Each structure stands twice: as C-alpha cells, then as structure tokens.
Amino acid sequence: xxxxxxxxxxxxxxxxxxxxxxxxxxxxxxxxxxxxxxxxxxxxxxxxxxxxxxxxxxxxxxxxxxxxxxxxxxxxxxxxxxxxxxxxxxxxxxxxxxxxxxxxxxxxxxxxxxxxxxxxxxxxxxxxxxxxxxxxxxxxxxxxxxxxxxxxxxxxxxxxxxxxxxxxxxxxxxxxxxxxxxxxxxxxxxxxxxxxxxxxxxxxxxxxxxxxxxxxxxxxxxxxxxxxxxxxxxxxxxxxxxxxxxxxxxxxxxxxxxxxxxxxxxxxxxxxxxxxxxxxxxxxxxxxxxxxxxxxxxxxxxxxxxxxxxxxxxxxxxxxxxxxxxxxxxxxxxxxxxxxxxxxxxxxxxxxx
Length: 353
Known about the structure:
Order of helices and strands: HHHHHHHHHHHH
CATH class: Mainly Alpha
Mean pLDDT: 81
Helix content: over 70%
CATH architecture: Up-down Bundle
Number of domains: 1
Strand content: under 5%
CATH topology: Rhopdopsin 7-helix transmembrane proteins
Shape: globular
Largest sheet: none
Radius of gyration: 28 Å
Distance between the termini: 99 Å
CATH superfamily: Rhodopsin 7-helix transmembrane proteins
C-alpha cells in the first residue's frame, strides 16, 4: 500500500480500480455493445420526451403557473440525467480504466448533479403544493420572480453537490479511505451523500402524506356543499396524485442505490456491493424514462399538448417534402428563362427611351 501522504492525481482510473479490488468486474465486448445499444434507445427517449415536456409548458398557456414551471425544471434535470447516462455508457468497462481523474470526476459529477437537481426540484414542488393546498387553491401565489429564484437556487445547490468530490472531498491522497463503488470517492463522502438524500426522501414522503390527508379531509367536508363544482374541487387532488406518483417512482428507483452506497461507505465487506452496481444503474435510467410517461398519463392536458406538438412536427416535415416535390426541374428552368426574357425586354425599353 502506498504511503498516506502521497497523492496520485496523475494516475489513470485503472490504478484506483485495482486499489478498490475491482479487477473482476469487467464488461465483455458483446455485453458492452448490447448495453450501449439498448441504453442509447432509452437515453434518446429520455432526451426527446423531456424536451417535449419543457416545450409543452412553454407553448401551452394553461401551464403558465408555478407548479408547471417547476415541473419543467424537473424535466430539465431528467434531460441532464440522459446526457449523463450517455457519457457513462461510453466510458464504462475497459474505457473507464483509461479515464483520467478529471474525466471520472466529470462522469460522476454529471450523475450527482442530475440526481441533486431532481431531488431539489421535488422538494421545491412539495413546498409549492403545500402552500397552495393549505390555501385550498389549485395553484400557489408564487410570482415568476420567486419561481425563477427557486430554479436558480436548485441548480446552484445541485452543481455544488456534484462538484464536492473534485473540490477536495476525495481519497486521491489517502487510498486506504477509498470506497469500492466509486474508487476515488472517500467512504465518508458516500455516507454523507446517501444519508442526506435518504433524510430528504423521508421529509418529502411525510410532507406529501400530510398534504394528501388534508386534501381528502377537506374534500369530504366540502362534498355535501359542492354538487356542481366538485370536479373543480378535485383538481388539486389530481395534481398532488401526479407529483406523488413521480415521487414514489423516484424513491423506489433511487433508495436501493443509496442504501448500497451507504453500506459501501460503512465499509461492509460482506455486502458484496459490486454485484448490485449494474442493476442500480438500470433502476436510475428507468426512473428518468418513467417521469414523462407519468406526466402524460396522469395529466390529460399534458398528453393533449404532446399530441399537438407531434402533429406540428409531422405537418412541418410534410409541408417541406411537398414543397420540394412540387418544384420540378422543368419548372425551375422555365421560370429562369422567363426571368431572363423579362430582363432583356426591360433593358431594351430603357435603351429606346
């Protein structure tokens, strides 16, 4: 083992993988190609679908409310997650051992930033829902300026959390403190990361359960007195169910990974955390795939906007094809001849004058 005071910034990641005993966890060439092909399809869906969510919020005036602005920001974090997964897929297996330390920090920083952004967005959405529901309104009274400040704050915190290991909380100078899953991350950082996220999970679950019980009680009280407007009164419940479904999928997909990271941080040698590495990554990818599906399934207006956007794209491509097909080579030459004759006639008239 190297001395404790020596740093290894110039080493490739293969050195740190060997230090963490990751010598048998290599991808086969056929398996790696299959994972990259299937993963690319999922990542394309993640990128396109979340762009559609953002476009739907921008184009549909019915979505110009704080809740949907924050939902679009959540879609932006999923879009970043799609980019992070693409970068990860093509820098895994043997390629990961050839990465520099800075390249590994970029790879993991993208993942950590996207996860932090998703978690922070869900927390902000929970606060927005709490404010609106306690005032018994469909949407809160947050101004666009405050929503913008919240979005900026979310990304500032997320970028900071994603860059913490590269700022010094790592084990490059203390190899005996390195974790197994992230071979240049300190075990203490994994403990901090996993515990803080699990605590935020618990806070959000408790908050949404309290909101949901309050709404259900309020609905039962108002039901006998709202015969014609009961559908309008149920609108807050629909929005809360959408967010609770997104939160539930997020917790289910990320909690196992956070628990495994916590076990790795606690240096659990019997846990064999490397066996779960690939499955946890698959769960993370599935979470980003599920969110746009949940938006469109739970929100009829969102699904209608999606269909309108697809129609606009299809109609635009058809018009371009039809306009190109209607212009024939003979017509183009005939038009050019007519233009040349017209210019000659006009020139002769000018000379006669």
